[in-house]
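I'll show a typical protein example:
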Amino acid sequence: MLQGQQSSLNVIKKEEGHMGIDIKELEQNWGLYMQEVDGKPAVIRTNLALLELAPIEEYAQRIQFAVYYRTPTERGLPTEDENPRLWEVEDTLYECMETLDVIYAGVMKRDNRVNFFLYAKSAEGIEEALVKALAEKYPDYKSQLWVDEDAAWECYLELLYPDKYSLQEIANSKVLRALISEGDDVSKVRYVEHWAYFSSKESAEQFLDRVVAEGFEAFKTNVLDSEDDYPYQVGVARRDAPEDIHPVTWLLLDVAEEFGGCYDGWGCGKAEA
């Protein structure tokens, strides 16, 4: 059975002080999701691992480098035909970023352009390097650059980093990709198992009462190590198609949080032929 795991049980501890950090050794954990930004659709990919470090005081200059699509859709996103070329553009710019003293925080496709977000100690020389790298391989693409002071990393924390629903969507997508890679038909309905954890027996029972009313069945209740913050484990299942899993997990996420618990992901077996 393939199962996705949430990080809600893991307390993220931010390190104090990041002076002298080696940006070439930063952890890379990229997540892709969609959401609306100022009423327009956006596709965002960001390095989730930076949350443990942000803000990095030395890197207070936020640089936004925009590359404009050649064939935007009415919704402000690139066409399927242009997307592969934009991926090549991103690869080229990433190679350039690797030679610069910058932290690549994320990229957003929105409003007829690809926006690359970087944090730097100083913006000096960065525009020249990025424009040159783009022009050498892709002279037909126009670009623009903005520099702002963002010592608190508000852009990363408030715009690029996903909310709890988008985080769950990212986790769901990883499981879906794994199922598809094994040849599974994710449109087929089957029993999907979900896990949640609670600090008390009472809260676990309240969760069960609520989700049973939504068509779920309890298949597991267990008490783990009493020293755990969330020792009461609950497993519930319902027949759903994995391709429709996002709203299902959002429901369970909200109900678990309502009763002080943590939703911890889902899994399912391969659909029968």
Observations:
- The two ends are 16 Å apart (CA to CA).
- The chain has a mean pLDDT of 91.
